[in-house]
Design brief:
Elements lengths: L2 E6 L3 E7 L5 E8 L6 H19 L9 E5 L2 E3 L4 E3 L14 E2 L1 H8 L4 E5 H12 L7 E6 L3 E7 L2 E2 L32 H4 L4 H18 L6 H4 L14 H7 L4 H25 L3 E5 L1 H5 L1 H11 L10 E4 L6 H12 L8
Parallel strand pairs: 1-4, 4-8, 9-12, 12-13
Antiparallel strand pairs: 1-2, 2-3, 5-6, 6-7, 9-10, 10-11
Helix pairs in contact: 3-11, 5-8, 7-8, 8-10
Bound molecules: zinc ion.
């Protein structure tokens, strides 16, 4: 008996066909359309699922169920995902994207489960890597920041299925950097892959201000803002900043500051959910494991009133959401094959 797992991200949509042991027999991926309509995104999801079925040499109508892990703000009752700050501006006026009903029609089954992507990631990590742990947080640091929570062995859903939006916890009360959600001072406005270049510009401007105030005495702190990074360029990426940490003074300063802010954000998350394990995924963390995770491991205890959890890099990496989506096709959480 096969099911389908879908990972709908801002950049890519991916699907797998697999069985209840997690063995994958088919897969496919495509770029996520950046509009112009919600239907275009739905069609792309259905196309990728059809292609994964072809790759597995099975008819879509023989698939027993499906799980979807989606970016954005989901509506579990409606089976749709609303627009998120993750998609491009072209899609800002998009209606909610229908996912559950169209996929149920294609597969001719009612067993279709929709979760937000981080919760699917948590389900994947829990099932595949940490099956003996009752309380686990899967934290993703990528273009945004979010968490999926397994609490006392069960996925924490929240209203409409949107618990775990921890990237919008405030870590800067002064709110100096605006967040994609419209508020300011949020964790992902400073430490996500999309935001780290803005943090670099902010820290460089801070240093510039101090220099003009004390022209004759340049303090050690101000030497941090010397840089060869192309700060004015829109092409400056978080990856470039991490790459130059240790050699470029500003890049080093930015990565240090990101580490300090991640300790605050992670401390909030751990105090809220008391997990035994925090599994960290997302490209920013996966590609810079020691620069991102080591400072958190070293400093996190200073923030905690609960037991210090094990902080590990996601074993499943980029597959966590897809694996979790496939898993919840079999386990439900209402609506799955045995739900
Ligand atoms: Zn926000």
């Amino acid at each position: 008996m096969y099911a389908v797992g879908v990972d709908l991200g801002a950049t890519n949509v991916r699907a797998v066909v697999g069985d209840d042991t997690g063995t994958i027999v088919g897969r496919a991926r495509a770029r996520t359309p950046q509009g112009p309509t919600a239907d275009a995104v739905t069609r792309a999801v259905l196309d990728v699922v059809r292609e994964a079925c072809r790759d597995a040499s099975v008819e879509p109508s023989t698939i027993a169920g499906a799980g979807i892990g989606s970016m954005g703000v989901i509506d579990r009752d409606a089976g749709t995902v609303g627009l998120s700050s993750n998609l491009g501006t072209e899609t800002e006026s998009l209606d909610p994207i229908p996912l559950v009903d169209p996929l149920a029609d294609l597969l001719e089954t009612d067993a279709v489960v929709l979760h937000n992507d981080t919760l699917a990631g948590a389900i994947g990590e829990h099932h595949h890597t940490h099956p003996d742990v009752d309380s686990l947080v899967y934290l993703t640091i990528s273009s945004g920041i979010g968490a999926g929570v397994i609490s006392d062995g069960s996925p924490l859903l929240g209203t409409d299925g949107n618990a775990g939006e921890v990237g919008h916890m405030t870590i800067d009360a002064a709110g100096r950097l605006p967040c994609g959600c419209g508020a300011a001072g949020h964790w992902e406005a400073y430490c996500s892959g999309n935001s780290i270049p803005a943090l670099a510009r902010l820290l460089a401007a801070d240093g510039g201000e101090r220099k003009s105030e004390n022209e004759n005495e340049v303090e050690d702190e101000d030497r941090h803002t010397e840089t060869a990074l192309p700060l004015e360029s829109n092409d400056l990426t978080a990856a470039e900043i991490f790459e130059h940490a240790g050699s470029d003074p500003l890049a080093t300063h930015v990565v240090d500051r990101v580490a300090e802010l991640n300790v605050l954000g992670m401390g909030n998350v751990i105090n809220a959910y008391a997990p035994a394990v925090v599994s960290v995924g997302g490209a920013v963390a996966l590609n810079n494991q020691s620069l991102v995770l080591d400072p958190i491991r070293e400093e996190i205890e200073s923030q905690l009133v609960v037991q210090t959890p094990e902080i590990v890099c996601s074993d499943l990496g980029e597959e966590a959401v897809l694996r979790g989506a496939l898993r919840c096709a079999f386990t439900g959480t209402s609506g799955g094959l045995d739900g």
